[in-house]
Amino acid sequence: MHYQQTLIEKLNKRSAVIGIVGLGYVGLPLMIRFAEEGFKVIGIDIDESKVSKLNAGKSYIEHIPAEAIRRSRKAGFRATANFADAKKADALIICVPTPLDNHREPDMSYVIGTVDSLTPHIRAGQLMSLESTTYPGTTDEELLPRIEARGLTVGKNYFLTFSPEREDPGNQKFNTRTIPKVCGGITPACLQAGVALYSAIIDQVVPVSSTRVAEMTKLLENIHRSVNIGLVNEMKIVSDRMGIDIHEVIKAASTKPFGFVPYQPGPGLGGHCIPIDPFYLTWKAREYGVHTRFIELAGEVNSGMPEWVIGKLNDALNDRGKSVKGSKVLVLGLAYKKDVDDSRESPSCVLLELLRDRGAKFSYSDPYFPIFPKMREHKFDLKSVALTPKTIAAYDCILLATNHTAFDYKMIKKHAQLIVDTRGVYPQPAKNVVKA
Questions:
Q1: pTM score, two decimals?
Q2: 240 belongs to a structural domain
Q3: CA distance 430 to 436
Q4: Which pLDDT tens digit goes with each residue over 104-157?
Q5: Known catalytic residue: 273?
Q6: CATH of the domain at 201
Q7: Cα–Cα distance between 171 and 175 in angstroms, integer?
Q8: Same structural domain for residues 58 and 115?
Q9: Rounded Cα distance, 414 and 427, in Å
Q10: What is the domain count for the chain?
Q11: Choice among 95, 273, 349, 397 that is catalytic
Protein backbone atom coordinates (compact mmCIF):
# COMPACT_ATOMS: atom_id res chain seq x y z
CA MET A 1 0.00 0.00 0.00
CA HIS A 2 3.00 2.34 0.12
CA TYR A 3 2.38 3.43 -3.48
CA GLN A 4 -1.09 4.67 -2.58
CA GLN A 5 0.08 6.35 0.64
CA THR A 6 2.94 8.10 -1.16
CA LEU A 7 0.57 9.34 -3.88
CA ILE A 8 -2.04 10.61 -1.39
CA GLU A 9 0.66 12.36 0.66
CA LYS A 10 1.92 14.11 -2.50
CA LEU A 11 -1.63 15.18 -3.39
CA ASN A 12 -2.31 16.47 0.13
CA LYS A 13 0.97 18.42 0.15
CA ARG A 14 0.33 19.81 -3.38
CA SER A 15 3.70 18.39 -4.47
CA ALA A 16 2.17 15.95 -6.98
CA VAL A 17 2.55 16.72 -10.69
CA ILE A 18 -0.77 16.65 -12.53
CA GLY A 19 -0.98 15.64 -16.19
CA ILE A 20 -4.11 16.65 -18.10
CA VAL A 21 -4.62 15.06 -21.51
CA GLY A 22 -6.98 17.01 -23.77
CA LEU A 23 -7.02 20.77 -23.26
CA GLY A 24 -10.53 21.69 -24.35
CA TYR A 25 -13.71 22.80 -22.57
CA VAL A 26 -13.15 20.22 -19.80
CA GLY A 27 -9.37 19.92 -19.53
CA LEU A 28 -8.55 23.64 -19.52
CA PRO A 29 -10.75 24.62 -16.52
CA LEU A 30 -9.34 21.62 -14.62
CA MET A 31 -5.80 22.74 -15.40
CA ILE A 32 -6.52 26.23 -14.08
CA ARG A 33 -8.03 24.86 -10.84
CA PHE A 34 -5.00 22.65 -10.12
CA ALA A 35 -2.64 25.54 -10.87
CA GLU A 36 -4.66 27.81 -8.56
CA GLU A 37 -4.12 25.29 -5.75
CA GLY A 38 -0.35 25.30 -6.29
CA PHE A 39 0.06 22.11 -8.31
CA LYS A 40 2.53 21.87 -11.15
CA VAL A 41 0.49 20.89 -14.23
CA ILE A 42 1.57 19.36 -17.54
CA GLY A 43 -1.02 19.73 -20.28
CA ILE A 44 -0.87 17.26 -23.16
CA ASP A 45 -2.73 17.84 -26.43
CA ILE A 46 -2.14 16.61 -29.98
CA ASP A 47 -3.14 20.04 -31.36
CA GLU A 48 0.15 21.94 -31.75
CA SER A 49 -1.67 25.27 -32.19
CA LYS A 50 -3.35 24.87 -28.79
CA VAL A 51 -0.01 24.00 -27.20
CA SER A 52 1.64 27.10 -28.72
CA LYS A 53 -1.17 29.43 -27.63
CA LEU A 54 -1.21 28.14 -24.06
CA ASN A 55 2.56 28.38 -23.68
CA ALA A 56 2.27 31.97 -24.94
CA GLY A 57 -0.32 32.69 -22.25
CA LYS A 58 -3.25 32.88 -24.69
CA SER A 59 -6.73 31.37 -24.49
CA TYR A 60 -8.81 29.90 -27.33
CA ILE A 61 -12.04 29.48 -25.33
CA GLU A 62 -14.30 32.53 -24.94
CA HIS A 63 -15.24 32.14 -21.26
CA ILE A 64 -11.66 31.34 -20.15
CA PRO A 65 -9.66 34.60 -19.99
CA ALA A 66 -6.04 34.77 -21.15
CA GLU A 67 -5.13 36.14 -17.72
CA ALA A 68 -6.10 32.77 -16.17
CA ILE A 69 -3.72 31.02 -18.58
CA ARG A 70 -0.93 33.47 -17.76
CA ARG A 71 -1.42 32.94 -14.02
CA SER A 72 -1.26 29.17 -14.57
CA ARG A 73 1.96 29.56 -16.55
CA LYS A 74 3.50 31.51 -13.67
CA ALA A 75 2.43 28.72 -11.31
CA GLY A 76 4.39 26.21 -13.41
CA PHE A 77 1.92 25.01 -16.03
CA ARG A 78 3.25 24.07 -19.44
CA ALA A 79 1.64 22.50 -22.46
CA THR A 80 3.18 19.86 -24.71
CA ALA A 81 2.28 17.53 -27.57
CA ASN A 82 4.79 14.95 -26.31
CA PHE A 83 3.07 11.99 -24.62
CA ALA A 84 6.42 10.87 -23.17
CA ASP A 85 6.00 13.68 -20.62
CA ALA A 86 3.25 11.56 -19.04
CA LYS A 87 5.90 9.68 -17.02
CA LYS A 88 6.63 12.92 -15.11
CA ALA A 89 3.05 13.10 -13.83
CA ASP A 90 1.78 11.54 -10.62
CA ALA A 91 -1.84 11.76 -11.83
CA LEU A 92 -3.08 11.60 -15.42
CA ILE A 93 -6.55 12.96 -16.19
CA ILE A 94 -8.02 12.13 -19.62
CA CYS A 95 -10.43 14.70 -21.08
CA VAL A 96 -10.86 13.80 -24.75
CA PRO A 97 -13.99 13.70 -26.96
CA THR A 98 -16.31 10.72 -27.29
CA PRO A 99 -18.38 11.47 -30.42
CA LEU A 100 -20.69 9.20 -32.40
CA ASP A 101 -19.79 7.71 -35.77
CA ASN A 102 -21.93 7.92 -38.92
CA HIS A 103 -24.08 5.03 -37.65
CA ARG A 104 -24.77 6.79 -34.30
CA GLU A 105 -22.55 4.30 -32.50
CA PRO A 106 -19.82 5.28 -29.99
CA ASP A 107 -16.54 6.43 -31.52
CA MET A 108 -14.06 5.41 -28.84
CA SER A 109 -11.02 6.11 -31.02
CA TYR A 110 -10.04 9.27 -29.10
CA VAL A 111 -10.12 7.54 -25.71
CA ILE A 112 -8.44 4.34 -26.90
CA GLY A 113 -5.87 6.25 -28.97
CA THR A 114 -5.03 8.48 -26.01
CA VAL A 115 -4.64 5.56 -23.60
CA ASP A 116 -2.49 3.67 -26.13
CA SER A 117 -0.30 6.78 -26.48
CA LEU A 118 0.02 7.09 -22.69
CA THR A 119 0.63 3.48 -21.63
CA PRO A 120 4.23 3.20 -22.94
CA HIS A 121 5.09 6.04 -20.53
CA ILE A 122 3.11 5.14 -17.40
CA ARG A 123 4.86 3.98 -14.22
CA ALA A 124 4.15 2.52 -10.80
CA GLY A 125 2.58 4.91 -8.29
CA GLN A 126 0.49 6.85 -10.80
CA LEU A 127 -3.24 7.50 -10.87
CA MET A 128 -5.15 7.58 -14.17
CA SER A 129 -8.63 9.14 -14.20
CA LEU A 130 -10.94 9.11 -17.22
CA GLU A 131 -13.39 12.02 -17.46
CA SER A 132 -14.73 11.49 -21.00
CA THR A 133 -18.41 10.56 -21.04
CA THR A 134 -18.80 6.95 -22.10
CA TYR A 135 -20.77 3.73 -21.68
CA PRO A 136 -20.67 1.75 -18.39
CA GLY A 137 -17.76 -0.66 -18.51
CA THR A 138 -15.30 1.45 -20.50
CA THR A 139 -12.85 1.97 -17.65
CA ASP A 140 -12.63 -1.69 -16.59
CA GLU A 141 -13.02 -3.19 -20.09
CA GLU A 142 -10.73 -0.88 -22.07
CA LEU A 143 -8.37 0.99 -19.72
CA LEU A 144 -7.73 -1.66 -17.05
CA PRO A 145 -6.31 -4.39 -19.38
CA ARG A 146 -4.14 -1.87 -21.22
CA ILE A 147 -2.58 -0.68 -17.95
CA GLU A 148 -2.07 -4.21 -16.60
CA ALA A 149 -0.52 -5.29 -19.94
CA ARG A 150 2.36 -3.00 -18.89
CA GLY A 151 3.03 -5.29 -15.92
CA LEU A 152 1.29 -3.01 -13.40
CA THR A 153 -1.38 -4.13 -10.92
CA VAL A 154 -4.34 -1.77 -10.60
CA GLY A 155 -5.22 -1.24 -6.95
CA LYS A 156 -1.69 -2.17 -5.80
CA ASN A 157 0.94 -0.11 -7.64
CA TYR A 158 -1.31 1.73 -10.10
CA PHE A 159 -4.66 3.44 -9.55
CA LEU A 160 -7.56 3.86 -11.96
CA THR A 161 -10.75 5.90 -11.60
CA PHE A 162 -13.62 7.33 -13.59
CA SER A 163 -14.87 10.81 -12.70
CA PRO A 164 -17.31 12.34 -15.20
CA GLU A 165 -16.90 15.99 -16.18
CA ARG A 166 -19.68 18.38 -15.19
CA GLU A 167 -18.74 21.59 -16.97
CA ASP A 168 -21.49 24.03 -17.96
CA PRO A 169 -19.93 26.83 -20.05
CA GLY A 170 -21.70 30.15 -19.66
CA ASN A 171 -23.29 29.21 -16.31
CA GLN A 172 -22.48 32.05 -13.91
CA LYS A 173 -23.86 30.23 -10.83
CA PHE A 174 -21.40 27.34 -10.84
CA ASN A 175 -17.73 26.80 -11.68
CA THR A 176 -15.29 23.89 -11.64
CA ARG A 177 -14.68 24.26 -7.90
CA THR A 178 -18.31 24.46 -6.79
CA ILE A 179 -19.81 21.67 -8.96
CA PRO A 180 -19.78 18.41 -6.92
CA LYS A 181 -17.56 15.72 -8.47
CA VAL A 182 -18.58 12.06 -8.71
CA CYS A 183 -15.72 9.55 -8.56
CA GLY A 184 -15.60 5.77 -8.81
CA GLY A 185 -12.55 3.50 -8.58
CA ILE A 186 -11.65 0.03 -9.83
CA THR A 187 -10.75 -0.89 -6.22
CA PRO A 188 -11.23 0.86 -2.84
CA ALA A 189 -7.56 1.92 -2.96
CA CYS A 190 -8.15 3.48 -6.39
CA LEU A 191 -11.19 5.35 -5.08
CA GLN A 192 -9.25 6.74 -2.10
CA ALA A 193 -6.56 8.03 -4.46
CA GLY A 194 -9.18 9.56 -6.75
CA VAL A 195 -10.96 11.29 -3.86
CA ALA A 196 -7.61 12.72 -2.70
CA LEU A 197 -6.92 14.02 -6.22
CA TYR A 198 -10.22 15.81 -6.70
CA SER A 199 -10.66 16.94 -3.08
CA ALA A 200 -7.62 19.16 -3.62
CA ILE A 201 -9.55 21.34 -6.11
CA ILE A 202 -13.28 20.60 -5.69
CA ASP A 203 -15.45 21.57 -2.71
CA GLN A 204 -17.45 18.33 -2.67
CA VAL A 205 -16.35 14.94 -4.01
CA VAL A 206 -19.06 12.25 -4.21
CA PRO A 207 -17.54 8.75 -3.98
CA VAL A 208 -19.45 5.84 -5.56
CA SER A 209 -18.87 2.10 -5.38
CA SER A 210 -17.45 1.49 -8.86
CA THR A 211 -16.35 3.06 -12.13
CA ARG A 212 -19.51 1.64 -13.74
CA VAL A 213 -21.73 3.52 -11.30
CA ALA A 214 -19.82 6.73 -12.05
CA GLU A 215 -20.11 6.11 -15.81
CA MET A 216 -23.85 5.43 -15.54
CA THR A 217 -24.36 8.51 -13.33
CA LYS A 218 -23.12 10.80 -16.07
CA LEU A 219 -25.35 9.12 -18.65
CA LEU A 220 -28.40 9.42 -16.40
CA GLU A 221 -27.71 13.14 -15.92
CA ASN A 222 -27.57 13.73 -19.67
CA ILE A 223 -30.43 11.37 -20.56
CA HIS A 224 -32.58 13.14 -17.96
CA ARG A 225 -32.04 16.39 -19.87
CA SER A 226 -32.49 14.80 -23.28
CA VAL A 227 -35.81 13.16 -22.35
CA ASN A 228 -37.21 16.29 -20.69
CA ILE A 229 -36.13 18.52 -23.58
CA GLY A 230 -37.72 16.01 -25.97
CA LEU A 231 -40.94 16.21 -23.93
CA VAL A 232 -41.05 20.01 -23.93
CA ASN A 233 -40.21 20.13 -27.65
CA GLU A 234 -43.13 17.81 -28.34
CA MET A 235 -45.34 19.96 -26.11
CA LYS A 236 -44.22 22.98 -28.17
CA ILE A 237 -45.47 21.34 -31.38
CA VAL A 238 -48.83 20.45 -29.79
CA SER A 239 -49.18 23.94 -28.27
CA ASP A 240 -48.34 25.54 -31.61
CA ARG A 241 -51.11 23.59 -33.35
CA MET A 242 -53.53 24.71 -30.62
CA GLY A 243 -52.47 28.36 -30.82
CA ILE A 244 -50.93 28.29 -27.33
CA ASP A 245 -47.60 29.90 -26.41
CA ILE A 246 -45.49 27.11 -24.85
CA HIS A 247 -43.17 29.65 -23.19
CA GLU A 248 -46.11 31.18 -21.33
CA VAL A 249 -47.20 27.68 -20.30
CA ILE A 250 -43.72 26.83 -18.94
CA LYS A 251 -43.57 30.13 -17.05
CA ALA A 252 -46.94 29.43 -15.43
CA ALA A 253 -46.07 25.79 -14.61
CA SER A 254 -42.80 26.96 -13.02
CA THR A 255 -44.74 28.68 -10.25
CA LYS A 256 -45.49 25.23 -8.81
CA PRO A 257 -43.01 24.88 -5.91
CA PHE A 258 -42.73 21.08 -6.15
CA GLY A 259 -42.83 18.30 -8.73
CA PHE A 260 -42.02 20.44 -11.79
CA VAL A 261 -38.65 21.36 -13.30
CA PRO A 262 -38.72 23.86 -16.18
CA TYR A 263 -37.00 22.90 -19.44
CA GLN A 264 -36.90 25.25 -22.41
CA PRO A 265 -37.72 24.14 -25.96
CA GLY A 266 -35.55 25.14 -28.90
CA PRO A 267 -34.63 24.37 -32.51
CA GLY A 268 -32.99 21.07 -31.53
CA LEU A 269 -30.32 19.71 -29.21
CA GLY A 270 -26.73 20.93 -29.22
CA GLY A 271 -23.44 20.69 -27.38
CA HIS A 272 -21.13 17.75 -26.97
CA CYS A 273 -23.19 15.94 -24.31
CA ILE A 274 -26.97 15.89 -24.64
CA PRO A 275 -27.32 14.93 -28.35
CA ILE A 276 -24.62 12.25 -28.12
CA ASP A 277 -24.31 10.62 -24.70
CA PRO A 278 -27.73 8.90 -24.53
CA PHE A 279 -26.74 6.80 -27.55
CA TYR A 280 -23.76 5.44 -25.62
CA LEU A 281 -26.18 3.70 -23.26
CA THR A 282 -28.51 2.70 -26.10
CA TRP A 283 -25.56 1.00 -27.82
CA LYS A 284 -24.30 -0.78 -24.69
CA ALA A 285 -27.80 -1.82 -23.59
CA ARG A 286 -28.12 -3.98 -26.73
CA GLU A 287 -25.34 -6.18 -25.34
CA TYR A 288 -27.71 -6.96 -22.45
CA GLY A 289 -30.78 -7.49 -24.63
CA VAL A 290 -32.41 -4.22 -23.62
CA HIS A 291 -34.10 -1.88 -26.11
CA THR A 292 -34.00 1.67 -24.69
CA ARG A 293 -37.25 2.92 -26.25
CA PHE A 294 -37.68 5.98 -24.03
CA ILE A 295 -34.17 7.31 -24.76
CA GLU A 296 -34.45 6.68 -28.50
CA LEU A 297 -37.88 8.32 -28.72
CA ALA A 298 -36.55 11.48 -27.06
CA GLY A 299 -33.64 11.48 -29.50
CA GLU A 300 -36.06 11.10 -32.40
CA VAL A 301 -38.18 14.06 -31.26
CA ASN A 302 -35.16 16.29 -30.64
CA SER A 303 -33.40 15.43 -33.91
CA GLY A 304 -36.61 16.25 -35.78
CA MET A 305 -36.87 19.79 -34.42
CA PRO A 306 -34.74 21.54 -37.09
CA GLU A 307 -37.04 20.13 -39.80
CA TRP A 308 -40.08 21.38 -37.87
CA VAL A 309 -38.53 24.86 -37.53
CA ILE A 310 -37.82 25.02 -41.29
CA GLY A 311 -41.42 23.95 -41.86
CA LYS A 312 -42.60 26.92 -39.79
CA LEU A 313 -40.23 29.21 -41.69
CA ASN A 314 -41.57 27.85 -45.00
CA ASP A 315 -45.18 28.51 -43.93
CA ALA A 316 -44.33 32.02 -42.71
CA LEU A 317 -42.65 32.94 -46.01
CA ASN A 318 -45.48 31.32 -47.96
CA ASP A 319 -48.03 33.49 -46.10
CA ARG A 320 -46.09 36.49 -47.41
CA GLY A 321 -46.11 35.25 -51.00
CA LYS A 322 -42.50 33.98 -50.92
CA SER A 323 -40.82 30.60 -51.13
CA VAL A 324 -37.78 29.38 -49.19
CA LYS A 325 -35.98 28.92 -52.51
CA GLY A 326 -34.38 32.22 -53.44
CA SER A 327 -35.27 33.94 -50.16
CA LYS A 328 -32.55 35.63 -48.13
CA VAL A 329 -32.43 34.10 -44.63
CA LEU A 330 -30.17 35.20 -41.78
CA VAL A 331 -29.63 32.67 -38.98
CA LEU A 332 -29.00 34.39 -35.64
CA GLY A 333 -26.56 32.40 -33.52
CA LEU A 334 -24.23 29.57 -34.48
CA ALA A 335 -23.44 28.39 -30.93
CA TYR A 336 -25.55 25.58 -29.45
CA LYS A 337 -26.63 27.79 -26.55
CA LYS A 338 -26.53 31.44 -25.54
CA ASP A 339 -23.33 33.28 -24.67
CA VAL A 340 -20.81 30.50 -25.44
CA ASP A 341 -18.35 29.96 -28.29
CA ASP A 342 -19.18 26.27 -28.71
CA SER A 343 -20.79 25.11 -31.96
CA ARG A 344 -20.48 21.36 -31.39
CA GLU A 345 -23.64 19.53 -32.53
CA SER A 346 -25.38 22.92 -32.81
CA PRO A 347 -28.85 22.76 -34.38
CA SER A 348 -27.96 26.05 -36.13
CA CYS A 349 -25.60 24.10 -38.40
CA VAL A 350 -28.39 21.67 -39.29
CA LEU A 351 -30.69 24.65 -39.99
CA LEU A 352 -28.08 26.09 -42.37
CA GLU A 353 -27.86 22.75 -44.21
CA LEU A 354 -31.65 22.52 -44.51
CA LEU A 355 -31.78 26.07 -45.88
CA ARG A 356 -29.06 25.18 -48.39
CA ASP A 357 -30.97 22.04 -49.44
CA ARG A 358 -34.07 24.15 -50.07
CA GLY A 359 -32.29 26.74 -52.18
CA ALA A 360 -32.31 29.65 -49.76
CA LYS A 361 -29.69 32.41 -49.85
CA PHE A 362 -28.47 32.09 -46.28
CA SER A 363 -26.02 33.77 -43.91
CA TYR A 364 -25.43 33.76 -40.18
CA SER A 365 -24.58 36.25 -37.46
CA ASP A 366 -22.78 35.30 -34.25
CA PRO A 367 -20.31 37.49 -32.32
CA TYR A 368 -18.48 34.37 -31.08
CA PHE A 369 -17.76 33.07 -34.61
CA PRO A 370 -16.44 35.78 -37.00
CA ILE A 371 -15.71 32.96 -39.48
CA PHE A 372 -17.55 29.64 -39.73
CA PRO A 373 -15.43 27.22 -37.64
CA LYS A 374 -13.80 24.02 -38.84
CA MET A 375 -16.13 21.16 -38.00
CA ARG A 376 -16.16 17.42 -38.68
CA GLU A 377 -19.68 17.27 -40.11
CA HIS A 378 -20.51 20.76 -41.41
CA LYS A 379 -18.65 22.89 -43.96
CA PHE A 380 -19.68 26.41 -44.98
CA ASP A 381 -17.62 29.21 -46.50
CA LEU A 382 -19.33 31.91 -44.44
CA LYS A 383 -18.48 34.92 -42.28
CA SER A 384 -20.61 36.42 -39.55
CA VAL A 385 -22.85 39.26 -40.77
CA ALA A 386 -22.76 42.51 -38.77
CA LEU A 387 -26.22 43.41 -37.48
CA THR A 388 -27.36 46.87 -38.57
CA PRO A 389 -30.84 48.18 -39.38
CA LYS A 390 -29.90 48.13 -43.08
CA THR A 391 -28.59 44.53 -43.16
CA ILE A 392 -31.52 43.20 -41.12
CA ALA A 393 -34.07 44.89 -43.40
CA ALA A 394 -32.38 43.35 -46.45
CA TYR A 395 -33.29 39.78 -45.40
CA ASP A 396 -36.62 38.15 -46.15
CA CYS A 397 -36.41 36.28 -42.84
CA ILE A 398 -34.40 36.36 -39.62
CA LEU A 399 -34.22 32.87 -38.09
CA LEU A 400 -33.49 33.31 -34.38
CA ALA A 401 -31.70 30.08 -33.45
CA THR A 402 -29.49 31.08 -30.47
CA ASN A 403 -30.54 33.83 -28.07
CA HIS A 404 -27.18 35.49 -27.34
CA THR A 405 -27.36 38.41 -24.90
CA ALA A 406 -25.25 40.47 -27.33
CA PHE A 407 -28.05 40.69 -29.92
CA ASP A 408 -30.10 43.91 -29.95
CA TYR A 409 -33.52 42.30 -30.09
CA LYS A 410 -35.45 45.57 -30.02
CA MET A 411 -33.55 46.85 -33.06
CA ILE A 412 -33.89 43.51 -34.86
CA LYS A 413 -37.66 43.46 -34.36
CA LYS A 414 -38.01 47.07 -35.54
CA HIS A 415 -36.28 46.49 -38.88
CA ALA A 416 -36.88 42.82 -39.72
CA GLN A 417 -39.40 41.90 -42.40
CA LEU A 418 -40.00 38.56 -40.68
CA ILE A 419 -38.58 36.85 -37.55
CA VAL A 420 -38.93 33.12 -36.88
CA ASP A 421 -38.30 32.89 -33.13
CA THR A 422 -37.24 29.44 -31.84
CA ARG A 423 -36.26 30.65 -28.35
CA GLY A 424 -39.25 32.62 -27.08
CA VAL A 425 -37.36 35.92 -27.16
CA TYR A 426 -40.46 37.81 -28.33
CA PRO A 427 -43.32 36.84 -25.97
CA GLN A 428 -45.78 39.46 -27.23
CA PRO A 429 -47.64 38.86 -30.53
CA ALA A 430 -46.30 40.92 -33.45
CA LYS A 431 -47.06 41.01 -37.19
CA ASN A 432 -43.46 40.23 -38.14
CA VAL A 433 -42.81 37.51 -35.51
CA VAL A 434 -43.63 33.82 -35.92
CA LYS A 435 -42.90 31.46 -33.03
CA ALA A 436 -41.27 28.14 -33.86
A1: 0.90
A2: no
A3: 14
A4: 788 999 999 999 999 999 999 999 999 999 999 999 999 999 999 999 999 999
A5: yes
A6: 3.40.50.720
A7: 8
A8: yes
A9: 15
A10: 2
A11: 273
